[in-house]
Design goal:
This protein is 45% helix and 26% strand. With 266 residues, it is of the alpha+beta class. The termini are far apart.
């Protein structure tokens, strides 16, 4: 058995090119994306969201977010009695039926939050338990046992620890007893991302944090994050973020809310 305790509920509207800086919570975070799309980066892994969908991030897991379209979200911070029942990160696309169910529950949550009648916190937690149960049911339906999951996990861990270096994937493949073609096919099949793209995503994630939190030059950051040249880094960053590294750094002055930056081209 498990139970959830809601700590806070917030409705938020993200405009195109809002960037939510890397952050973490001392509890779980559930985000219901009613509509809109963008990217989430959680523990160095990049995910594409497109509403309606729902994400759950466990406590102390660093993550950031960038919108590509106007996005409306409900954000719930909550505690849970059973810690290992949820994955560190979950992202679920919602079908029409499930979306209607989730919307109705959030309407009830908002009503309780607004009216604040007796025991409203307890009522909110009871309603939210239904959302978590629905998410667990959807996750269980999606889970498929694969003999390659452990292999891919080990590869991801290696990349996260060594992304600054030149990684010879052919050598790593042979170490695991695979040809390079089979090796990269397994990774793509399991993750939906090529192994080289995964490496670049890790480098991009590190670069974003350095641009916002250090005074290193753009060239120094490119080298520190393992990019082969400043020009390549600049072009890659601009393609992925729709803004240059320098413009991204300058955008940190355009903070419109806690942890939220409005990215604007100069």
């Amino acid at each position: 058995m498990y139970s959830c305790q809601v700590k806070s509920l917030v409705y938020y509207e993200h405009h195109e090119n809002d960037y939510v800086m890397q952050h973490q919570h001392n509890c779980y975070e559930c985000v219901f994306y009613q509509k809109g799309k963008g990217t989430l980066t959680v523990d160095n892994e990049v995910y594409q969201y497109e509403g309606p969908c729902i994400s759950i991030v466990s406590s102390n897991l660093k993550h950031d977010e960038k919108t590509e379209e106007f996005t409306t979200v409900y954000i719930v911070l909550f505690d849970m009695t059973t810690k290992d029942i949820l994955k560190p990160f979950t992202l679920l696309k919602l079908g029409e039926k499930d979306n209607k169910f989730i919307n109705k529950i959030f309407e009830k949550l908002c009503k309780e939050e607004k009216n604040k009648e007796a025991y409203y916190h307890e009522m909110m937690s009871s309603y939210f338990n239904l959302i978590i149960t629905k998410c667990l049911r959807l996750t269980n339906a999606l889970n498929k046992k694969s003999p390659n999951k452990e292999l891919v996990r080990r590869i991801k861990d290696y990349i996260k620890e060594n992304y600054k270096q030149n990684i010879d994937f052919s050598l790593i493949a042979s170490t695991f007893g695979y040809s390079y073609d089979r090796f990269r096919h397994i990774f793509k099949e399991e993750t939906g991302t090529s192994i080289n793209q995964y490496l670049l995503n890790c480098r991009l994630y590190a670069a974003k944090q350095m641009l916002l939190n250090t005074t290193l030059s753009i060239k120094e950051i490119a080298i520190e994050c393992g990019f082969k040249s400043y020009v390549y880094f600049n072009n890659f960053f601009t393609e992925k973020m729709n803004i240059s590294p320098l413009q991204f750094r300058n955008s940190s002055k355009n903070q419109i809310d806690i942890n939220v930056i409005k990215i604007e081209r100069s």
